[in-house]
Amino acid sequence: MADFPSKVSTQTSTPVQGGARSSLPGLGALRPDIGFLRSVLGALMIVEIVVGLLAWALIADTPYHYYSIYGWVMFVAVFLWLVTIIFFVIYVWQLHLKLYMVPWPLVLMIFNVSATVLYITGFITAAVAVQRTSIAGSYIYDKRAAASFFTCVVMIAYGVSAFFSFRAWKGMGSNAATSQMAGGYS
User: Fold this and answer.
1) Of 172, 175, 36, 19, which is closest to residue 97 (Cα–Cα)?
2) Which residues contact 46 (CB under 8 A, 6 or more apart)?
3) Backbone Cα Rg of the chain
4) Is the pLDDT of residue 29 over 80?
5) Contact yes or no for 141/134 (Cβ under 8 A)
6) On the CB side of 15, how many CA atoms lie within 13 Å of its CA?
7) Is residue 19 over pLDDT 50?
8) Residues 155, 107, 43, CA angle at the centre, nearest 5°?
9) Which of 163, 61, 62, 77 has the alpha carbon at shortest distance from 121?
10) What pLDDT, on the 0 to 100 scale, is given for residue 8?
11) Which of 41, 110, 141, 167 could form a Cys-Cys staple with 172, CB 3.0–4.6 A?
């Protein structure tokens, strides 16, 4: 009984390592989640960001403002590209664990399904407009055709992300404890 006080620790939390402190409360221990980058959803988000950038950059490099049909394609591509970057930052920096009151698997699934539907309309619009708005064989035609191709690739990537985020939301292939610890992605 005499050695009991020496075995008891009154420390309630772990100290911040390296002495670095965040100016925002609760964000001092943020570290990038390498496991998310290695997951299927993380890899698909990287593909969506990179190929989505290619799609809207190719359209932006043509005189698209003369044709209002490309306004919709640009809106879809740029808006979803920015929102995907926001979700990517949230998951890489594990902010979804700090904002635990938000059902992140459900939010991500709804976003991916919505993005898939919007990219379907954007792809169809871009593919139909290529022939009508440019001369075959010109550099503008080639850029718009390539943008249509990359829009299709991004559409497929969002569709696959919707499937995997649906599985993460439903918890298929894991039990409740592991899906909570994994942060909702597989």
Assistant:
1) 36
2) 37, 88
3) 22
4) no
5) yes
6) 6
7) no
8) 50
9) 77
10) 63
11) 167
Residue 30: strand, helix, or coil: coil
Q: How many whole angstroms separate alpha carbon 40 and alpha carbon 14?
A: 32
Other C-beta atoms lying within 10 Å of the C-beta of residue 55: 31
Question: Encoding tokens for residue 12?
Answer: 């309630």
Q: How far apart are CA 30 and CA 95, in angstroms?
A: 8
Q: How would you classify residue 35: left for phi > 0, otherwise alpha for psi between -120 and 50, otherwise beta?
A: alpha
How far is Cα 23 from Cα 10, in angstroms, rounded to an integer? 26
> Could you tell me the sign of the dihedral formed by the alpha carbons of 74, 113, 104, 47, in that order?
negative
**Token code pair at residue 17:** 């390592």
Q: Say which amino acid occupies 150.
A: F
pTM score of the predicted model? 0.78
The residue with tokens 């035609």 is 141
CB 148 within 8 A of CB 130: yes
- Average pLDDT in the chain: 86
Instruction: Tell me the percentage of the chain whose pLDDT exceeds 70.
Output: 77
